[in-house]
């Protein structure tokens, strides 16, 4: 699954298109070393296909590569961080 990153100013999005449907995870950059993930949207047609999990994993990988931390404001992403203690190095708060 290809995940596209788009960032304009302080707003960003990770997105994936699968079977003609778009799923996204949005974030706000508060500084060069910190983002807030505030929303994950997965259409009903993509539920249960691991798309949300793929977006969350991508966000963590990007944080590690970029050397920044994530504040998990989005309920889905926050729940994923609790299921993945190995992501603790990228989570703030």
Strand content: 35-45%
Summarize model confidence as the mean pLDDT. Answer: 96
Q: For the CA atoms, what is the radius of gyration? A: 12 Å
Q: What is the string of SSEs from the N terminus onward?
A: EEEEHEH
How many β-strands, per DSSP?
5
What characteristic shape results from the CA principal axes?
Answer: globular
Number of continuous helical runs: 2
Describe the biggest sheet?
5 strands, mixed
* Multimerization status: single chain
Description:
- There is one protein chain.
- The chain is globular and about 35 Å long.
- It has 93 residues and is an alpha+beta fold.
- It has 2 helices and 5 strands; from the N terminus they run ββββαβα.
- The model has no long low-confidence stretch (mean pLDDT 96).
- The longest helix has 16 residues.
- Strand 3 and strand 4 form a beta hairpin.
- The chain has a 5-stranded mixed beta sheet with strand order 1-2-3-4-5.
């Amino acid at each position: 699954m290809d995940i596209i990153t788009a960032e304009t100013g302080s707003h960003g999005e990770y997105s994936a298109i699968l079977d003609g449907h778009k799923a996204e995870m949005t974030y706000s950059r508060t500084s060069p070393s910190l983002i807030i993930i505030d929303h994950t949207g997965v259409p009903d047609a993509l539920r249960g296909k691991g798309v949300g999990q793929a977006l969350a994993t991508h966000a963590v990988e990007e944080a590690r590569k970029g050397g920044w931390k994530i504040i998990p404001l989005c309920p889905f992403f926050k729940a994923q961080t609790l299921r993945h203690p190995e992501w603790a190095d990228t989570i703030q708060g």
